[in-house]
Amino acid sequence: IVRTGGKQYRVEAGDTIHVERLTAPVGERVSLDDVLLLSGDETRVGAPCVEGASVVSSIVAHGRDSKVRVFKSKRRKQYRRTRGHRQAYTALRIDEVRG
Predict the structure, then answer these.
(1) Burial 29-47 (b: 16+ CB within 10 A, else e)
(2) What is the per-residue pLDDT across 86-96, written as a single tens digit (0 to 9) for each?
(3) Choosing a second label site near 12 at 20 to 30 A (CA), which of 45, 54, 87, 94?
(4) What is the model's pLDDT at position 30?
(5) Among 32, 28, 29, CA closest to 20
(6) Which residues pair with 19 in a beta bridge?
(7) Structure confidence at residue 41 (pLDDT)
(8) DSSP per-residue codes, the chain
(9) Are 52 and 86 in contact (CB under 8 A)?
(10) Is there a contact between 89 and 21 (Cβ–Cβ < 8 Å)?
(11) Are the beta carbons of 63 and 54 closer than 8 angstroms?
(12) pLDDT reported for residue 62
């Protein structure tokens, strides 16, 4: 279990995940050091992070998710507001889990 961008992800080598937008360019290797739980021969739980553990990943792409519509209204008051939001993401391919 690794934490990045305020969210937690369960990852294994070879997985591809979408995380909050990172500033590094496509093709660069990124190390995620906030490892909360490491499982293998033995399970290690961090307090809050596992010492010496990291996840090495490569940036595959940057993009934006599909649009989410936000609609607000008040009944009988003729009040309606529609907004749209597209969240920016970075696609990461997990290369290696070091522990």
Answers:
(1) ebebebbbebeeeeeeeee
(2) 999 999 999 99
(3) 87
(4) 96
(5) 32
(6) 90
(7) 87
(8) -EEETTEEE---TT-EEEEE--SSPTT-EEEE--B-EE-SSS-EE-SSS-TT-EEEEEEEEEEE---EEEEEEETTTTEEEEEEE--EEEEEEEEEEE-
(9) no
(10) yes
(11) no
(12) 97
Q: What is the pLDDT of residues 56-71, one digit of tens each?
A: 999 999 999 999 999 9
Burial of 80 (0-12, 13-18, 19+ CB in 10 A): exposed
Question: What tokens were used for 16?
Answer: 């591809």
The residue to which tokens 């360019």 are assigned: 25
Q: d(Cα 19, Cα 48) in Å, to the nearest integer?
A: 20
Which amino acid makes up residue 33? D
